[in-house]
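4.2 Preliminary Data

To establish feasibility before requesting continued support, the project team ran the inverse folding procedure on a target of 69 residues. The structure was first converted into the token representation described in Section 3, and no sequence information of any kind was made available to the design step. The complete token record follows.
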């Protein structure tokens, strides 16, 4: 059974999971619990958007300049 979560992005989910892992790890080190339950939770894949280096106008200007050289 898969649980649905209501995080806006995978990055936000991963940040929350990382924080909880750290909190539970402190509890393990202080012998409050025997093992970290968050170790079973895997991070989600984060899609990294590739930035456009130039706007269309900048690209046209650059190409125009290169053609004139």
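Position-by-position output of the design step:
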């Amino acid at each position: 059974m898969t649980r649905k979560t209501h995080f806006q992005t995978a990055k936000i989910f991963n940040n929350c999971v990382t924080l909880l892992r750290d909190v539970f790890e402190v509890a393990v080190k202080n012998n409050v619990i025997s093992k970290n339950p968050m170790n079973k939770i895997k991070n989600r894949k984060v899609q990294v958007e590739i930035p456009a280096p130039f706007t269309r106008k900048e690209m046209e200007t650059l190409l125009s300049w290169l053609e004139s050289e």
